[in-house]
Amino acid sequence: MTGGGVSQPPDSQPPAIPYSGDHDGQPRILQLRLRRWGFVQNPPTVGIDGREYVGSWGLMTFEVPADRATHVSVFLQTKNRTGAAATLLLADQAPNLEYSSPAHPAMAGEIGPPNTTVSRGKPIIFVLLALILFAIVAILALLRLMG
Question: What does the pLDDT look like over 12-30, one tens digit per residue?
């Protein structure tokens, strides 16, 4: 730990957000990569043991207790808290997590170890886009036949 009781991650990471809960033990740094996909434009909100932080897409770092489990949650900033996902980061688990937003904000997000999460709803988005494209082609064909 450095002055002020805040652990500093290596220079390649953003500064860690200090833990705001009641904890006197040794901290560790959680690296949380927030990935978005599809039509998701809303910024994420990250919860660490019930405390919420307005997030940004990309890498965020948080100081969390090293000697006990930490509840980590993420949801999209909408009036209904869409795209929600949560996990319990155990004391013996590597402090690296990844959140993948859903392809559409009405679906659930996914949180887990790096490179294990997916954006739910991709097939639905591709089917909808294909239907829209088909409708446009059909309308253009009808207009050509009528003209």
Answer: 667 899 998 888 899 999 9
Strand, helix or coil at 83? Answer: coil
Whole-number Å distance between alpha carbons of 146 and 109: 46
pLDDT for the residue numbered 1: 40
Query: What is the CATH architecture of 3-120?
Result: Sandwich (2.60)
Q: How far apart are CA 147 and CA 144, in angstroms?
A: 5
Instruction: Dump pLDDT digits (tens) for 84-97.
Output: 999 999 999 999 99
Q: List all residues 6 or more positions away from 76 whose beta carbon is below 8 Å from its beta carbon.
A: 40, 42, 43, 44, 45, 82, 83, 84, 101, 105, 109
Domain regions of the chain by residue span: 3-120
pTM of the model as a whole? 0.75
